[in-house]
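Workshop exercise sheet. Pairs work together: one partner reads the sequence aloud, the other fills in the structure field after running the prediction. Swap roles for the next sheet.
Pair: D.N. / O.F.
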Amino acid sequence: MDPNDMKTLLKAQQGELDAVLMYNALADKVKDKNDAETFRQLAAEEGRHAAVFKKLTNQTLKPKKTLATVVPLLNNVLGKKRLYPIIAKFEYGAVNTYRPVAEKYPEVESVKNDEHRHGDMVSELL
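Structure field:
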């Protein structure tokens, strides 16, 4: 495997693991039950994405708690009208990040497509 691809895949794997914790933490903090349900669904899907990347990297990574700590606090400070578009932007950004590796590793294509849908799902919560 190309070292640049491995770097991208490891970064993607880490990001997906971190997103699982973040979305679950948001689900625990938000008051709107629909938002919480959506965040739990996103967490589950991000976990599946991490598994796709793990199969490619053959490495076990541990999720970092930074986003899971900071993002719920930002929700309190910024409110959903300002925070959710930021989250959606990161989901949409993952599409561009995953595009080059999806061309080489077909299993990443569905992950890439899911990330666009995730951006839409978060945007629709507004």
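Discussion prompt: Helices lie at 3-29, 33-57, 66-78, 80-104, 107-124. What would you look at next?
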